[in-house]
Amino acid sequence: MTSVLLAGCGTMGGALLEGWLERGIRPEDVTVVEPSPHIAGALRQRGGLSVVGAPGDIGADLRPGVVVFAVKPQEMDAVAPAYKRFAGPGTVFLSIAAGKTIGYFEDRLGADAAIVRSMPNTPAAVRRGITVACPNGLVTPDHRRRCHDLLEAVGEVAWVDDEALLDAVTAVSGGGPAYVFLLVECLARAGADAGLPADLALRLARVTVSGAGELLRRSTDAPEALRQSVTSPGGTTEQALKVLMAADGWQPLLTRAIAAAAGRSRQLAG
Question: Of 23, 90, 102, 246, which is the most buried if we count CB atoms within 10 A?
Fold first, then answer.
């Protein structure tokens, strides 16, 4: 295993690190740059990991196989240029920062930088995320394998060659967990409006959505087939679906929502 340099160990960076260690990456193969004394202190107590507070504290002899940018997008201007010294054929840069394009990193890391831009989502925290990645022209098959292995530690991985598709990816899977959580909120509120105690309505909504998600994950059936299996002709579910699948129902609403999110992603990237 080539060494990994992780810049930032917040929520997503921490999820990646946990996934790597669970999959057998040796702690001594990972260097973490984390400015927060609280987070850095907790990491040091684990043993094996090399933890520093700033890029300038990285050992001069370190030659990482992968540099992973896991800092907030608004902090990237101050962070990325400090890693330019690692650019070269032996290293690939992997970014999980939303809205920061391949061109953005090429401008800051130089013409020799092999760069993979990726968009993960928050279920990575429980190893059930999905990440879509896009390489620049300097990414080799070996670079791609390294990044794939690291991202796969927290869920499924897909690749695209057209970076413009990442705006729609951000809208669908990046923001998707928030839409699902909103569904739980709305379902619980509707249950309470129908007369259920609020705590029971929330419990029903929460367990139903998470359980349906697990059923979908395990089944080989299409979502349409699973929906139909729950829907008896002339029954209660059919009546609800007539509302949800109407001309002004969920589909046009979600289509507008995804278009709005994708448009905002393009604005942020531009």
Answer: 102
- Residue of 62, 51, 55 whose CA lies nearest to 82: 55
Question: Does one domain contain both 19 and 82?
Answer: yes
- What residue numbers bound the domain in which 216 lies? 176-269
The predicted-structure confidence for 88-144, as pLDDT tens digits, reads as follows 999 999 999 988 999 999 999 999 999 999 999 999 999 999 999 999 999 999 999
| CATH number of the CATH domain containing 231 | 1.10.3730.10
Contact residues for 18 (Cβ-Cβ < 8 A; gap 6+): none
Instruction: Supply the pTM of this predicted model.
Output: 0.93
Angle (nearest 5°) at CA 10 between 4 and 16: 45
Give the separation between CA 80 and CA 77, rounded to whole angstroms.
6
In a domain, 168, yes or no: no
CA-to-CA separations, 12 to 50, 123, 131, in angstroms, rounded:
19, 10, 12
Q: Which residues pair with 130 in a beta bridge?
A: 156
* Each residue's pLDDT tens digit, 66-103: 999 999 999 999 999 999 999 999 999 999 998 899 99
Side chain identity at 66, as an amino acid letter? V
DSSP per residue, 153-175? TTEEEEE-S-TTHHHHHIIIIIS
